[in-house]
Specification:
Elements lengths: L18 H7 L1 H4 L4 H13 L5 H28 L5 H7 L3 H7 L4 H5 L26 H24 L4 H32 L19 E3 L25 E3 L24 H8 L16
Helix pairs in contact: 1-4, 3-4, 3-8, 4-9, 8-9
Length: 295
């Protein structure tokens, strides 16, 4: 059960309207790494959590905070759109110099949303649940969460650099700080899980079933050997089970693919020798009514 508190978690009030920046801000609302994505990702991870209760509680704590961040950004976008109907901008844009400065307001902010935010990214692509990850394996999920927070913080920092509005920067500075905490939070949780279940996901799979000859081999599939100096190619592996092996010239270990010709009713392109046989009249077309397939 959730309660709504009328006050925002932190201030979300621009110094002045800016409809063009409102369009940019949509990215951290409804983009792949926006607040809607982490909100839904964390909520479903929490609701589906079957591990000990401290993990469920922690996930839902941050998930609920992300709802507050969605509200803050939506509120900021709406205020950036204050007093900026699309027709005024279009009139101003008749001047090429002004048009270049404006860069283009999102017309849907006025036409569809009535000067409000929308659950889309900065180019109007709708938010989708495919952005979210909730696998049931906490180590795998927490690593995905760390990536989401890393990408999200990167985007907020870039948006901070794209405005001089003191009110917008104030809100973004708060979100950047929270993303700092959330990255640290997921790294701490990842470290804790790795200490109990190992570094490789899933830890419950019997490694004897792997092709262990290649489990720890870094294979060089490009010209040059610069990659050989990396930590991923030298020393003990992070699961502590072996040492990395650097393979300079990996050899093919599989067969040369040779697929069987498709049956005649598929009407594909048969091998050359078969085409020659058909041209010489040596093969009759398949007339069996039970084998006509797609006819």
């Amino acid at each position: 059960m959730f309660y709504h508190v009328k006050e925002l978690q932190y201030n979300a009030k621009p110094a002045a309207p800016d409809p063009v920046y409102a369009k940019k801000l949509q990215e951290i609302l409804g983009g792949q790494f926006g607040e809607m994505s982490v909100m839904m990702q964390y909520l479903f991870q929490g609701w589906n959590c079957r591990a000990e209760s401290k993990y469920r509680d922690m996930i839902l704590d941050i998930a609920t905070e992300e709802i507050a961040h969605v509200e803050m950004i939506a509120t900021m976008i709406a205020q950036l759109l204050d007093g900026a109907p699309a027709n005024d901008q279009e009139e101003a844009a008749k001047n090429p110099a002004v048009e270049a400065v404006l860069g283009g307001m999102n017309p849907q902010h006025a036409i569809v949303n009535g000067l409000g935010a929308q659950p889309n990214d900065s180019v109007g692509y709708p938010w989708t649940a495919r952005y979210t990850i909730a696998s049931g394996n906490l180590l795998a999920d927490f690593r995905a969460n760390l990536n989401a927070e890393s990408q999200g913080r990167l985007q907020v920092c870039r948006l901070y650099e794209m405005t001089t509005d003191t009110g917008v920067r104030d809100m973004l500075s708060f979100l950047i700080a929270r993303d700092t905490m959330h990255q640290n939070q997921w790294m701490a949780a990842i470290e804790e899980l790795e200490q109990t279940q190992g570094a490789i996901v899933p830890s419950s799979f019997n490694q004897e079933y792997e092709k262990q000859e290649v489990s720890y081999s870094f294979m060089n599939f490009s010209a040059g050997e610069e990659s050989s100096t990396g930590r991923w190619a030298n020393g003990q592996t992070y699961d502590g089970q072996a040492n990395f092996e650097y393979v300079q010239s990996p050899q093919a270990m599989g067969q040369k693919p040779a697929l069987q010709p498709a049956p005649p009713y598929i009407h594909g392109t048969p091998p050359l020798d078969l085409r020659k046989a058909q041209g010489a009249g040596k093969l009759e077309p398949n007339t069996n009514q039970n084998q006509q397939g797609f006819h």
